[in-house]
Amino acid sequence: MKASFSLLLIILLVISCNTPKVFTDYAAETNFEEYKSFNFYAIENSGLSPLDGDRVYVTLVDSLVARGFEEKLIPDFKINFYAEVFDQTSNSNFGIGIGGYAGGIGTMVSPQSSKRTIALTVEFADGLTNNLFWQGVVEARFKENLKGKAREEFIQSLVGEILQKYPPEPKK
Predict the structure, then answer these.
(1) Containing domain of residue 72, as a range?
(2) How far is CA 32 from CA 67, 105, 144, 169, in A?
(3) How many domains does the structure of the chain reveal?
(4) How many angstroms separate the CA atoms of 74 and 94, rounded?
(5) Which residues does the chain have with pLDDT short of 50?
(6) Is 124 a domain residue?
(7) Has residue 97 been placed in a domain?
(8) Which residues form the signal peptide (predicted)?
(9) How deeply is 162 buried, as exposed, middle or buried, from its count of CB atoms within 10 A (0-12, 13-18, 19+)?
(10) What is the per-residue pLDDT across 61-70, written as a single tens digit (0 to 9) for each?
């Protein structure tokens, strides 16, 4: 029984380390029901390859239209997105030490691993005032060697994770 519980904890730990983390923020006074149509700011400096930028764009459009939003030339809100890819160093350290009172011997082993990470940010701003009213960021491990359909599905999952948090749950 103990062994299966330990195995379950290890599996949960491994899974939780690889799941995307989503962070959102929004203007408290926002009435999200006012925003029914969208369009995009110029998509030039997104930090993504042109192909990945297109993937994010198409996924955002498809996802928002499926949720009842309409893409319009003069929208209720405008969308901006950008990404940053970076190496994230793990904080897991352990030490081994041997020593005595005087003239001791000491050593420390501190393995650190670096994981390629992507942070994709999606911002919604009022179409008239350009005031930012909602922002979502997803961080996930990034396998840069993904190609074709696998990369497309990865991008779709990132956008899906962000949009799950829009609109925010009303406070009770």
Answers:
(1) 19-87+113-165
(2) 14, 64, 35, 10
(3) 1
(4) 57
(5) 4-16
(6) yes
(7) no
(8) 1-27
(9) buried
(10) 999 999 999 9
For residues 40 and 79, is the Cβ–Cβ distance under 8 A? yes
CA angle 69, 20, 169 (to 5 degrees): 45
Q: Is 54 helix (H, G, I), strand (E, B) or coil?
A: helix
Give a yes or no: residue 6 inside a domain: no
In a domain, residue 12? The reply is no
Cα separation, 133 vs 121, whole angstroms: 14
Give the tens place of pLDDT for each residue, 51-95: 999 999 999 999 999 999 999 999 999 999 999 999 887 665 555
* pLDDT confidence of residue 170: 73
Note the pLDDT of residue 92. 57
3-state helix, strand, coil in the chain (%, to 5): 30, 30, 40
CATH number at residue 129: 3.30.160.670
